[in-house]
Specification:
The structure is a homodimer of 196-residue chains.
Chain A (H helix, E strand, L loop, with lengths): L6 H18 L6 H8 L6 H4 L3 H21 L9 H18 L7 H9 L4 H27 L9 H22 L3 H15 L1
Organism (chains A, B): Prosthecodimorpha hirschii
Keywords (chains A, B): DNA-binding, Transcription, Transcription regulation
Protein name (chains A, B): TetR family transcriptional regulator
Chain lengths: 196, 196
C-alpha cells in the first residue's frame, strides 16, 4: 500500500530537482538523479508527480515564486518612483545572475528553449509565467508613464514584453560567454534606449 | 579494420542530426536516433565524430553556414542601403522562423541554453558564431552611420550585440507562444527604438 504523500519530501524533490535541472537541463538528468539528490527512493517520485513533465511545471512554479518575491515585488514598491523600480528590477536580476557566475541562465529561458516544442505541460506553464512577468512589468511602466517618467505614447504591454525578451537574450549570451558583459550591455544600451 | 570515412555519410549524419537535435534538443535524442535518421549503423558515428559534443559543434557549423549564406549575406548586399540591409536581415530571419511555425527556435539559442554550462566544445563554438554574427551586423551598422542613416554616437558593436540578444529573446518567446507575435514586436518595437 503506498505511503501517504509527505509534503516535506515533495518540497525536497522540487528544491533539489530545480537545482539539478537548472544546472544540467531537463533531459540532461533523469528521475533517478533527482531522487538521489533529494535522498528518496526512485519509485517515490511518481507518488508526488504524474510525470517528469508535470515535475518541470512544478519546479517552474517554485522558481517563479522565488523570482516573484525577490525581484518582481520590487516593481510594486511604492516608496520608489516607477521608472527606478523598473531599473532596480533588472539590476537586481543581473546581480542574481552574477552570483551564479552567469553560468546557469534563467530556468524559464532554459526550459523555454529545451521543452516548449516537446512538452505541452511545460509550454503552458512557461506561457503563463511569461504573461505574469510581462503584466507586472507593464503595470509599472504604465505608472511610469502616468508619473511623466516615460513618453505616454509607449504601449506598456509591448514595451514590457520587449524588455523581457531583450533581457532573456542577454542572459543567454552571458551564459555562452560566462561573463557579465551582455547583461551590463542590457543595462547601458537596451534598457535606456527602449525606455527613452 | 575500420572502413575509410565516407564524406557523404558524414554529411548525412550532420544533416539529419541537425534536424533531429533542432527538434528534440541535444539531450533529447541519442546517438542512435541520429544514426537511425541518417540510415547508418550506430557504431559508425564515432568514425566521424570524436564525441557527441564534437558533433554538436559540427551541426552548429552547418547551421551557421545556412544562416550565413541565406541571411548574413544580406548584410553585404551593396545594392541596398545599409539600414535597409539590417532590416531585411531580420525580416528574412523572421520569415524563416515563420516557415518553422515558430516551433523549433534558433539552433544557436537552443544549444546556447542547453549546452553552454556543460560542454566546453559547444560553448566555444557558440561563442565564435555569436562573435561572427555580431561582427557582420556591426559592420553594416557602421556603414549605416557613415551613410548618415544612424546617429554617429551609436557604438556599432554594442548595438549589434543588443539587437541579436533582443532577437534571440523574441525567438524564445515565439517558441513558447508558438506564434509570431514576439517576432513582429521585435520588428515594430525593439528594432526601430534601438536603431533610433
Amino acid at each position: 500500500m503506498p505511503r501517504p504523500p509527505n509534503p516535506e519530501v515533495r518540497s525536497r524533490l522540487i528544491e533539489k530537482g530545480a537545482e539539478i535541472i537548472h544546472r544540467l537541463g531537463f533531459n540532461g538528468c533523469g528521475v533517478q538523479d533527482i531522487t538521489a539528490a533529494a535522498g528518496v527512493p526512485k519509485g517515490s517520485f511518481y507518488n508526488y508527480f504524474e510525470s517528469k513533465d508535470a515535475f518541470a511545471a512544478a519546479i517552474l512554479d517554485e522558481y517563479w515564486r522565488a523570482i516573484e518575491s525577490n525581484y518582481v515585488s520590487i516593481l510594486e514598491d511604492d516608496f520608489v518612483s516607477p521608472l527606478k523600480r523598473v531599473e532596480r528590477h533588472f539590476s537586481e536580476l543581473i546581480e542574481y545572475h552574477e552570483r551564479q557566475k552567469f553560468t546557469f541562465g534563467c530556468l524559464i529561458g532554459n526550459l523555454a528553449l529545451e521543452l516548449a516544442a516537446q512538452s505541452s505541460i511545460a509550454r503552458s506553464k512557461l506561457k503563463a509565467l511569461l504573461r505574469t512577468w510581462t503584466a507586472a512589468l507593464a503595470k509599472c511602466l504604465s505608472a511610469a508613464s502616468e508619473a511623466g517618467e516615460l513618453p505616454l505614447a509607449r504601449e506598456p504591454q509591448d514595451l514590457a514584453a520587449t524588455l523581457i525578451e531583450a533581457f532573456e537574450g542577454a542572459v543567454m549570451v552571458a551564459k555562452v560567454e560566462q561573463s557579465g558583459r551582455a547583461l551590463r550591455r542590457f543595462g547601458t544600451v537596451a534598457l535606456p534606449r527602449l525606455l527613452a
